[in-house]
Write a structure and sequence with these properties.
Length: about 325
């Protein structure tokens, strides 16, 4: 009797069966069910075996399609990575959760908690590994600022400048501290000097240009305000407040035609701000564009209503 293999060889020789068919008919090695791997990974993570679970969780994300299971896998991956201090993996999981489950309160809670913890770890590492560095001193100063301890923060910033007078951003922060105190002509003068010093170190610093513009605006030095607001908006085309300040200053000088372009830019960037619509309506109205002005006034009212609804109080009258 001819064996099965011999018959198969004869069929191949006479062309009735192709070698490709032969390969397809060859039994394959069994592969593990991906659902089994997922269950195993989640069980390991739940019972605290994160060292064993983490590689399986990462592998599972490439195959899992079910929405709920992906959520559980990514959450477990973030939790295990944080516990094992695998920062990169933790951030990867958090980014995935925010991308695939936006606005989910559980995701937002975990994101807040874990990012705060990562920031705390980094700060501790900085304080331990480089306590005398400019970065460590700057972090201390920022901590004082967040607590409203302006004098302590200023002292830290002054120490940084003594260590390295060319450190960027320090004069800007000193200027902001001066403006956080009750405004007086003297405090304006001192803050202005700090922002000017920052620009000598970093001529491309848009925030310092903006602060110089805002000081000039408050002092009603409109030409200076326009110059600095204009430069800030050119240095950083995404600096929306600079466009608003520029438009407001031009309106103040009754240069309504010139004010339209920066104000149109601003309301496109921040359509929810009633002040922008008010200023643009003013510029339109004074240049004879009454229909456009009425549209902006309607948008202003809508923005105020939304603001009142979210804040639970009356809207702030645009200046």
């Amino acid at each position: 009797m001819i064996g099965r293999f011999a018959v198969f060889v004869l069929l191949v020789l006479v062309g009735l069966v192709s070698p490709a068919t032969a390969r397809q008919d060859t039994p394959k090695e069994p592969t593990p069910d991906s659902s089994v791997v997922v269950r195993q990974a989640l069980d390991l993570a739940t019972t605290g075996h994160c060292i064993e679970a983490l590689p399986l969780l990462k592998k599972s994300l490439a195959h899992v399609v079910d929405h709920t299971i992906r959520f559980n896998v990514a959450m477990s991956m973030a939790r295990c990575a944080m516990g094992l201090e695998r920062t990169g993996v933790a951030v990867e999981a958090i980014v995935l959760l925010n991308r695939e489950f936006p606005h989910d309160p559980r995701v937002l809670y975990v994101t807040t908690h874990y990012y705060s913890e990562l920031a705390s770890r980094a700060a501790q590492d900085l304080a331990t590994s480089a306590p005398s560095s400019v970065e460590a001193q700057e972090l201390d100063a920022e901590a004082y600022e967040s607590q409203g301890k302006w004098d302590e923060a200023a002292a830290e910033y002054e120490r940084i400048l003594k260590q390295d007078p060319e450190t960027r951003g320090i004069h800007y922060r000193l200027g902001r501290i001066l403006l956080s105190k009750p405004s007086t002509p003297a405090s304006f003068d001192e803050a202005r000097k700090e922002f000017e010093a920052e620009l000598r170190i970093n001529p491309e610093d848009a925030p310092s240009e903006f602060m110089l513009a805002d000081i000039a605006r408050q002092e009603q030095r409109w030409d200076d305000a326009i110059q600095h607001f204009s430069r800030a908006s050119k240095l950083d085309v995404g600096f929306s407040e600079a466009f608003l300040g520029l438009g407001m200053s031009l309106n103040a000088l009754q240069k309504y035609s010139d004010a339209i372009t920066p104000l149109e830019t601003y309301v496109k960037m921040v359509p929810s701000d009633a002040a922008g619509h008010y200023q643009l309506a003013l510029a339109y109205g004074r240049t004879g564009r009454r229909e456009d002005a009425e549209k902006q006034m309607a948008l202003q009212r809508e923005a105020e209503q939304r603001s009142r609804g979210s804040a639970g109080g009356p809207p702030t009258q645009p200046q």
